[in-house]
Write a structure and sequence with these properties.
about 500 residues, mainly beta, four-stranded antiparallel beta sheet, about 10% helix, about 35% strand, flat
């Protein structure tokens, strides 16, 4: 039910409780699908009674369950309940994205005795140990995680990796040799490709002209001896042909395919979105929030059926929860089976990178209603707006906390009971909590640390900190005086700001 204020009145904090009661979106009740039952890129038209939605039906009009309220200029008072049903909206539980971090620093680095990588004045990179001391001096062009407890490096001849204490390793070093897990691996012989098991035993003879995507979920994509692109199983049996320009390995039951569009510059796409974002599936931890990258993509299931058709105007990269599809001016959100969860409507994904990455890892995203320009928050699991299109900004911050900005105030709101925990000036900014119970509050170029209730626990001198990142448990990378260091949740520098650059190694 929609609640609207009477003319010439202003909603009080008490009235706001009633104004923002949520109702499930009417368009989320049907179990619709957006897929074709053909193995080729054609679109079929189905009867409405089948509860299937094809490309043609995605352009039908729809409305949002949106609530409009008028609020006091100073915003709600502390303790006001903004969203009475927020705590029961299905927002509990975190994806494995954030479960990778189990302690005060990234797990992989912690196990190796390394805290972070630093860039010296010479432009080269080295490593800091858990105490913040230099374990490896800055001498490499780049440093990242390697195999078997090593760190991959570039910039020195014949050195491809180092140990945590800086010992250089050549490419053929025993420390770098990985034991292959059970599976099938491609090999090339006499210009043709085949597959071997982890012991090197040939399972599929080298008869294929190319391997498009290696085995995942028991299926590989290859170019057959006759040149046709096809899916095969581990016995070499042809499952179905692939009438697509590109196809990528299966990830959790779905494979992305892409097709070329006349005049489309794929090289520019690579430069914009990067190799990970291009065709290898979507990881909110590495890719950040969903972006419009221009790729004409679709998705097929293990049987080769099209789950999401690439002939839509635009299909976003797949997330663990589903994806957004745009067509003919309308946008929908579907789960990984193609079932319609939200829409159609005119909305787009909000652009705050840090907050949206945190939200997506927890199965949420902030959306903007294109008509009202107001923001709401969508639960990607249920397809329901857990915060309606009501506020100028509405973002999930982690630790079951939300940032709400409207009128003259920036509010910190509890996701458990919807209470306003703290109120700040409108231009104040809060970073996501991440894996910590403390985050940065930024007001008038001054950085403060606030706890989960929004209470200030430390304030840095004005202009002393110019940049800071989300905390990993108790540590944050911060910049002061043009240099980077590592600061803890009490405002104490573990690593004084002395480096040209710093980054977590994970």
């Amino acid at each position: 039910m929609h609640h609207h204020p009477k003319p010439h009145t202003v909603c009080s904090a008490a009235a706001l409780l009633t104004c923002l009661l949520l109702s499930p979106p009417a368009f989320a009740e049907t179990g619709a699908h957006v897929y074709s039952h053909e193995h080729r890129e054609v679109r079929t038209t189905t009867q409405s009674s089948s509860r299937e939605v094809t490309r043609e039906t995605t352009r039908s009009s729809g409305t949002h369950t949106s609530t409009t309220v008028r609020k006091d200029r100073l915003g709600p008072t502390l303790g006001t309940i903004l969203f009475p049903r927020l705590g029961s909206s299905g927002t509990k539980g975190r994806s494995s994205v954030l479960e990778k971090i189990t302690d005060t620093i990234p797990l992989e680095s912690r196990e190796k005795g390394i805290l972070a990588a630093f860039q010296g004045d010479n432009g080269k990179w080295g490593l800091l140990d858990l105490k913040g001391q230099e374990a490896v001096p800055p001498q490499y062009k780049s440093i990242g995680l390697g195999n078997n407890g090593t760190f991959a490096v570039t910039g020195k001849k014949a050195v491809t990796a180092i140990t945590a204490d800086g010992q250089p390793l050549a490419a053929d070093s025993p420390e770098l040799q990985q034991t292959k897990p059970p599976g099938l691996y491609s090999f090339k012989k006499d210009g043709k490709y085949g597959f071997q098991d982890e012991t090197g035993k040939t399972v599929l003879a080298p008869i294929y002209k190319d391997v498009i995507a290696g085995f995942q979920a028991g299926i590989a994509f290859v170019k057959m001896p006759d040149g046709k692109k096809a899916a095969i199983n581990s016995q070499g049996q042809l499952l179905y042909l692939l009438p697509y320009d590109r196809v990528f390995p299966f990830q959790n039951g779905l494979a992305e395919y892409q097709r070329d569009v006349s005049g489309f510059n794929w090289a520019s796409v690579l430069g914009i979105v990067g190799a990970v974002h291009f065709g290898l599936g979507y990881d909110p931890q590495t890719n950040g929030p969903l972006t419009r990258d221009g790729v004409k993509r679709g998705y097929i299931d293990r049987s080769g059926q099209i789950v999401i058709d690439s002939h839509n105007d635009f299909v976003y990269p797949m997330t663990p929860f589903g994806t957004f599809v745009e067509d003919k001016g309308q946008t929908i959100f579907v789960d990984r089976t193609g079932k319609l969860l939200y829409g159609p409507g005119k909305f787009h994904i909000a652009e705050d990178t840090a907050c949206q990455t945190e939200a997506l890892a927890n199965g949420q995203l902030s959306l903007v209603d294109e008509k009202s320009k107001k923001m709401g928050v969508l639960d990607l699991r249920s397809g329901q707006l857990i915060i309606p299109y009501t506020f100028e900004e509405a973002y999930f911050l982690g630790s079951d906390r939300y940032l709400i900005r409207d009128g003259q105030s920036t509010l910190l709101v509890s996701g458990t009971d919807g209470k306003v925990l703290a109120s700040y000036p409108k231009k104040a900014k809060l970073l996501p909590y991440g894996t910590s119970q403390v985050t940065w509050l930024i007001q008038d170029k001054q950085y403060s640390l606030v706890d989960a209730n929004g209470q200030v626990v430390y304030t840095a001198p004005k202009d002393s900190i110019t940049t800071a990142g989300t905390f990993l448990k108790i540590f944050s990378l911060a910049k002061s005086g043009g240099r980077y260091g590592i600061i803890d949740t009490a405002g104490k520098w573990l690593v004084p700001p002395q480096y040209k650059n710093l980054t977590w190694v994970w």
